[in-house]
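writing this on my phone so excuse typos. first protein, seq and then structure
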Amino acid sequence: MDRVQTNRNRFISKLLFPKENLVFALFISVMCLVIWLVTVLIIDAYLIKERRDYPSLINMAGKQRMLSQKAAFLTLARQTNQTADSDLKSAIDLMVENQAYLLTQAELVDLAGYYKKQALDKQIQEFSEFVTQLSVESNLQRKPQYTLDLMNMSEALQVALDKTVSEWERTSENANLQLIKYRILFGISFLITCFAVYLFVLAKPLHLSIVTANLKDHAINRFKRLFDYSHEGLLILDKDWHVVHANTAAKRVSNAFNSDSSMEHFWHEKINLKLKGKILSALDSVGRWEGEVFSNDEKTTYLHVSIIQVMDSNNQLDFYGAVMRNITDVREKEEKLKTLALYDGLTGLANRANIIECISEECGKSQESDGRFAVLFIDIDGFKLINDGYGHELGDKLLNKIGNRLSSITKNTDVVARLGGDEFVLLAKNITSDDVIVSLSKRIMKAFEAPIQCDDIGVQIGFSIGISVYPSDAESASELLKKADIAMYTAKQKGKNQFQFFNSEMELYLKERFSFEDDLRNGILNNEFFQLFQPVIDIKTGNIVGCEALLRWQSSTRDLVSPNNFIPMAESLNLMTEIDKWVFEASLKVIQALPKNFYFAINLSPKHFSNSEVLSAFLSKLSAIENKARILFEITETTIITDIEKSTRIIKNIRKQGFLVAIDDFGTGYTSLYNLKRLEFDIIKIDRSFIKDISTDSNSKNIVEAIVKLAQNLGLNVVAEGVETKEQLECLREFGCSYAQGYYFSKPIEINALENKYFGKTTT
């Protein structure tokens, strides 16, 4: 119900105050003016009618006056002239008739009030009756008084009629003035009505109509300017394919192709009959066509054309619209982008995406022809050292020269690509046998035997090459690359500067390696590591004086894993930092629980010498420990010799804070006597490989004895590792060795067992 009322109110509001529809507003305006005009005409007709009756009444009143005089005259004349009888009767009848007319019309025009006030109807009646009476008298002379009465009545009637005429003349003038006044008022009301209609009905729709018309004109003008000044070449074609209009951009396109050609000639030259038929077919089916047109057979200039058909209101073809643009620059940029997308920016060789596409195409061709081809994955050995030593600029030049040389020693049908960094791939097509691949690999390695000259520097390089063969190793581009990469990795593991064919054992090895990596990462996340402790014995007294903390991994999937297996893997994966954090935290708790005179040895990995932040944090936490000299940090010879300067700084920092430093596995590395003095160690640990044979091999015995004497002369203590027999212990006691550790005394044990078994006890 409310919705109906709302719709009705909206309709009434729209009817009374139309806001947008000009035609509807004009209709409302005309209706308002018609209603006003009809009303005015009715009022005006009434006023005119009333005014129109006034002259006839005045004339009739004047006529009555004349008839009264005539009747009086004829009455008197009848005494001497008998012919006056008929005229008198006619005059009296006419007066009676006029009297009836005057009474009727006076009533209609509202003059009866005055007419009756003057009693004219009664006077005329009495006068008529008196005249009639006299007309039948035979001798008026016998009644002189009648003559006098007749004259008096006639004069009185004339006076009354004169007054009536005067009064009606004044009323007539007032009616005329009133008509003029009303017409003036009608004129003013007309202006007011027109203004009101304009203000409330026409103004806004008319304004909107004018604005809309102006906007349409402005829009048309703007579209015309847009058409003329558009950067796109725009054409209007008639039904016969002739150019009706072309904007400036279209003319520029035409001039770019042929400056001597007119627009019409250019259009028909580029859109020949064959192409026109193709275009018209497309227009008939889908209503549009677009494509490229070339300037010549070399295709050095490109024109993109789009054509549509424009229909009229009856859905009949009106004209064709064409848009054309010179896209030569765009195509050139596309070619550049294609080059960037498919070719290496440094060497100009094919990139990864390109070589994968080439290998995929070759897979398809070889499958159809039962052919064979090989993928060689080539990695430069030690390229990081070259970059670090000579700089990246020289490294880039070296890569460029390597790419050029690889291209020069391969067939034109082969494809050389750079995957990135120092990795190259060679697609060797049409391989008949493995001997051809071997010969190609040797040729590549031989071509780089001589140093490559870069900026007056001769750089010697070697390659590790992995080879996969289609279809025996794989039948897809990704698998062939993957297996060639696996073979290359195996070549590096076997000593570099060589080539290896892929075999399934390599893949199994890598799968196992990747699985091991995943398990190691999970082991770190799941806290699967624990510590065992190898007791250190004072050879002279047989008492335990300390222990070495050893890390162990109890894997949830691999059971107990040896440090010899997981430590190198953790170092290669940069996971040692996380492991060392755990070791340091666990060691800190053990150190705090052990006696103050019980020394505790911790192994430092090489990672602490490239990133000493973790070590520094641990040393800071150890600063509150009493008797810091009981904390021993063990460092291998290999770690030290990698960067002797940095190792010296770190060792000095450790000793400066009051801790001890031992050189571990002494005798197996490259530590010179000068470095031994320079690094200022506190303890030398003799490697187990020398201890193993001291009771049976004179050379081993002499070496161990010499190391012990050297350490004593330098004021250093000696710890012998790997003591397993009583004979070995006796030899060490004979040499004057201070300390020993090994299975002869105890296997690595947990901290609880260490406390229960050895504290306060002696060992013989």
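second protein below, same order as before
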Amino acid sequence: MLYTTVKKTIRVMFTPFRDGLQSCFGGRVRVNDVLPAMEAAAQAGIRHFEFGGGARFQAPYFYVGESPFECMDKMRAAVGPKADLQILTRSVSGVTLTSQRLSALDLQARMMKNHGTTWDRNFDFMNDVENLARTGKPIADSGMHHQVCIALMGLPFHSDKVHTPEFYVDVIRRFQKSEVPFNSVCLKDASGTTDPRTCYETVKSLRELVGPDVLIWQHTHDTASMGIACYMAGIEGGADGIDLSIRPLASGTVQPDIRAMAHALKGTGFQLDIDVSKLGEVEKLLEEGLSAYDFNPVTTTCDARVVGFPMPGGAIGPNVHMMKEAGILNKYDSVLAEFPEVVRAGGAWTSVTPGSQQYWLQAFNNVLHGRWKKIDPGFGNSVLGYFGKPPIEPDPAVVKIAVEQLKLEPFTGDPLEAAPDTLVPAEAELKRRNVKISDENIFLVAAAIVPGKEMELNEGIRLLEGRAKVALPLKNSETPQAENSSSSVPSGNFKTKIHVNEGGRSRSFTVTVSPPPPATTNPSDTSAASNGKLVPVYSPFEGKVEVVEIRVKAGDTVKKGQVLAAVEAMKAKHDVKAPCNGKVLSVDASLGTAVAKGISILTLEV
């Protein structure tokens, strides 16, 4: 039983304004909707917040139409100059989903520091120590508090070699030899699947390794209902700080509620550094600010099945939202069941971003196309070593398939040197479009560059040119959906709210949107082909997806099975193939067009 006669105060990092938003909504929340609650939290005495990085860097300009840098500035203003504001970065990926060069990570560190960040928690999903050292140096050089992370995960299969206390402690033991300065150590369990005993043994051994003066922090999610038990175990082992949230952005896929943790510590000799009795106003303001948002039960409910599919809370939320949007939520359970196999075959890297997304997309591809019939590029690059060295050797058969499909050889060099240069093409594109060149604008474009994706669809370019995509998870009362298909494109006019910031002033407008009329031909109706008539070509998904590639033009002759276009679903590109031989009569969509069941991408004449 946890107990101490020597009183100890446990520090709290408050997470609703980053991890809470990410785990519940994929980060797709307007900053003005949470600022009042954040200000109230600061007034209640909270002095350490998570406010950026992770999905809360890309989501604001990918889906909300807001600059993440402006969001950070507003949050800093809300909490005042003395509070610590923390971001989450992903080693060689930084705040992106792809590997970056060191020049981009240097710029990232400077930008984050300039926009109010005082702490940077940096993890590597491979637990690759060389990656952690190389990417940690820019953080330390910037003057931010450098918190080096060990990424934890409960394996969905047995192994006594990886994801054990000895394995985790050895990460820091080897990191110390790099001589890169660090201020604290964090045990980050994004999926909430590590058992309490492993938490206790890891913290206890770490304390012996780093000594009494280095802060040891612990982060977990309550997805499997084990959050408080793991924190109690970590505190008993010697942890100094923990991450907590508050409802409605707590528990489920988020961190435990701060009040539940305070209650659990009663009579133990340990106490939090926050008076939880003052936080009622924070909860009230969050409920008011988020009243228009649709809380998905999958993200707000604990699910013990996660121990068999170690997905982080911050990934379950957006992936469920994307599956719902694409009309394939019925495949959710099948994707989860495929997880143990992709984790084993991949090399047991930790299920944190971008590794979690790679696991998810490969499991999704295995369900959609057959096991290993289509290798997700991110998963394949990880298997082949382009993100670092996996903890255990990947399945040789899967490595061979990845080599054949991706036309890449296994890599054992430095991922930072192998990464594409994103800053130079980003600046060139801004210049070509006569968009203001600044460090912020260059980084926004660079952080959204994905190999093979048209620059016209780059989310940084879209934001800066005033055509950002806005896809907020609002309730049906604000964004009506087609009957019996919550992910279909609305069939009639609907209203939505748009917030505009100009010259320091914020204004809100209600806009009526008129979607294009659906095509009259049913995608399942093949009689058109047999009668020599027109054959519309549709997305392979019934729900709403975006057209990201068009390979043909009007007048082209095509053959059955030929790839004509591509759509993006689940953050991955999916081919659209010709259903029959024919001639392209018309191209009915353009890059960036949202299509769904009944809305054609092209029309063939047969």
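Residues 527-605 form a domain with the OB fold (Dihydrolipoamide Acetyltransferase, E2P) fold (CATH 2.40.50.100). thats all i got for now
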